[in-house]
Amino acid sequence: MEMEKKGKGRPRQAKNTTQFWQFARAARVMCAYDEARERGDKHSVAVRGVVEHLKRSNPEMPISQTEVKRILVVWRPRNATLPYPRTASRVTREDWSEIGSTNES
Questions:
Q1: What whole-number distance in Å separates Cα of residue 54 and Cα of residue 41?
Q2: Is there a domain that residue 23 lies in?
Q3: Is 86's pLDDT higher than 90?
Q4: Does residue 40 register a pLDDT over 50?
Q5: Could you write out the DSSP letters of every residue in the chain?
Q6: What angle, rounded to 10 degrees, do the helices at 20-38 and 65-75 form?
Q7: Of the candidates 1, 7, 29, 78, which lies 20 to 30 Å from 53 by C-alpha distance?
Q8: Higher pLDDT, 98 or 17
Q9: Is 49 among the domain residues?
Q10: Would residue 94 count as lying in a domain?
Q11: Total tally of structural domains belonging to the chain
Q12: Which domain holds residue 70?
């Protein structure tokens, strides 16, 4: 009876996949970074501010200045235009009910 031999090291993640928590973290990083830049903060100050903000609001989420910079490189390449406006808006209950009613048909 032969047993399959396990590969050495950590199993590799499938290419071009992102776990939900990583995607959510990236979204929060970009939102906080945009807010800091709109206030007039320079890049380095904005990066430090994002780290401090995320650590205060969600201490169990791993984040560092290096990770913020990596997220910005992946999701915000230089000289790229944004596909959405930088203004934040809240979704109301009425908006959700409209979305739900259009999906049911």
A1: 17
A2: yes
A3: no
A4: yes
A5: -PPPPPPSSSPPPPTT---HHHHHHHHHHHHHHHHHHHTT--HHHHHHHHHHHHHHH-TTS---HHHHHHHHHHHS-TTPPPSS-S---PPPHHHHHHHHHHHH-
A6: 90
A7: 78
A8: 17
A9: yes
A10: no
A11: 1
A12: 18-78
